[in-house]
Amino acid sequence: MTDNVNLDEYDDEQVKLMQEMCIVVNEKDEKISADTKKNCHLMENIKKGLLHRAFSVFLFDSENKLLLQQRASEKITFPDCWTNTCCSHPLNTPLELEEAAQIGVRRAAQRKLEHELGIKPEKVPLDDLVFLTRVHYLAPSDGLWGEHEIDYILFIRGNFTLNDLAVNKNEVSAVEFLSPEELRQKFNNPGNLKFTPWFKLICENFLFKWWQKLDDLESSKDILTIHKLGF
Which residue spans adopt a coiled-coil conformation according to this UniProt entry (predicted)? Predict the structure, then answer.
């Protein structure tokens, strides 16, 4: 796979993260190898079929408002875009490769919630991260970068406030809690706002239905299906 792209123009911290090893999977979400985050996000490789495992966390407060983040300008893919609470990848490590009950993905989510938003692991216990389903999508960021992922959707609800956050400004430039009505308004009147493609796809297909059933997430679970969206 291509690995000859010069990263000198990008933020140093974000370039370091590009060396992390993602889990490369097939369309059945079976691990077939591992590759760098950089390689997994180059459109040249994506067009050849390179597919990796990811997760998207949707965190709700006690009033059922969803925490959104705006990705920092320093991000290499989808900078400045608004998206769900936390989006990232389980890594090719023993703890995050473990597949039973999606525990590896949930460990990765706990790790990244602390890295991006400063949410301590004890505030997001692994057992409280509820796996709903998987989404397979492909989306370009620009001519060079993009995403091609099987994305695990994780919900968590609790007594969260903005005071619980210690935002990593290299990752996140803004945060806010929104009701369903407020999010719809944000979508319908975007102005200069940009949204990540996976967040838009999940909203258009699933989110608002799931949001109505936060007291009964079991009824929304579809743990066997991998939904292909946006193809």
Answer: none
- All residue ranges of the chain with pLDDT < 70 are 1-4
Number of structural domains the chain divides into: 1
Range of the domain at 143: 12-229
Please spell the DSSP secondary structure of the chain, one letter per residue. -------TTS-HHHHHHTTSEEEEE-TT--EEEEEEHHHHTBHHHHTTT--EEEEEEEEE-TT-PEEEEEEPTT-SSSTT-EESSEEE--BSSHHHH--GGGHHHHHHHHHHHHHHH---GGGS-GGG-EEEEEEEEEEESSSSBEEEEEEEEEEEESS--GGG----TTTEEEEEEE-HHHHHHHHHS-TT--B-HHHHHHIIIIIHHHHTTGGGGGGG---S-EEEE--
Q: Which residues are tagged catalytic?
A: 87, 149
CATH number at residue 111: 3.90.79.10
Q: What is the pTM of this model?
A: 0.95
User: Is 6 within a domain?
Assistant: no
